[in-house]
Acyl-coenzyme A thioesterase THEM4
Amino acid sequence: MSEIENGHGLKRRREAITGLGDALRLLIEQATATEAPTEELLRAAELIRRAAAPLGERVRGRFETAAADDLLGGVRLYNPVTGAGSAFAPPLEIHRDGDGAVGTCTLGRAFEGPPSFAHGGVSAMLLDQMLGYAAGAAGHPGMTVRLDTGYRRPVPLYTPLRLTARVAGIDGRRVTVTGTITTAAEPGDVLVEATGVFVALRAEQARRLFGPVLG
Ligand SMILES: CCCCCCCCCCCC(=O)SCCNC(=O)CCNC(=O)[C@H](O)C(C)(C)COP(=O)(O)OP(=O)(O)OC[C@H]1O[C@@H](n2cnc3c(N)ncnc32)[C@H](O)[C@@H]1OP(=O)(O)O
């Protein structure tokens, strides 16, 4: 895409994608929490369809990477957990912390399972990402083959959360990673814990699974 061939164009596009992601997340939050009159819902649906139309005029296919992404550099703007451009992502922000990783996010109404608390599948999704990040950051990237989650207490909505992950063991191609979710205010009180097993791909597997994307 010629408009982002120079560094400035890429920076501007990534900022625009983040801005669109912010707007979409606001839309999802308001659309989920709204008790506006029915007429307003009908009007909003029409406006949203009109706003979406030009975005659909030029789209990428299943095996095409987004022009603003850098797959090998780890930039995935539409990742459904961490992507700043994803309407669906909280987004979870992750950084390295010693030999592990720490993540932060706040979940809105769209992630609700039990009333006023997060859906259990959402907690598992956040932890899968955290554990996968910690495995990769430790130099052992792999795909999840197992994820065990223990739900000790419900995860509250609209509350800053803190997530942790660290590699617990390496056995050949298998990496075991553990992680937790707590509130940011009470990091000693574990709400959800997880253990994941990640398997490093053989070169042949990586080619078979991701060859069409990497080209
Ligand atoms: C900074 C960076 C950021 C990077 C940040 C990135 C974050 C990404 C986080 C998201 C990660 C995902 O969601 S990934 C998406 C969800 N996962 C998937 O779709 C994976 C689907 N599974 C597969 O396609 C396959 O299992 C493969 C290709 C991964 C592996 O196939 P395979 O090579 O045939 O597997 P196989 O020989 O049977 O097993 C390999 C080894 O793993 C063990 N193993 C296999 N399954 C299990 C299991 N459930 N529990 C325990 N161990 C298992 C086997 O015993 C064996 O050990 P041994 O005999 O060798 O001792």
Q: What stands out?
A: The domain at 93-211 is CATH 3.10.129.10 (Thiol Ester Dehydrase; Chain A).
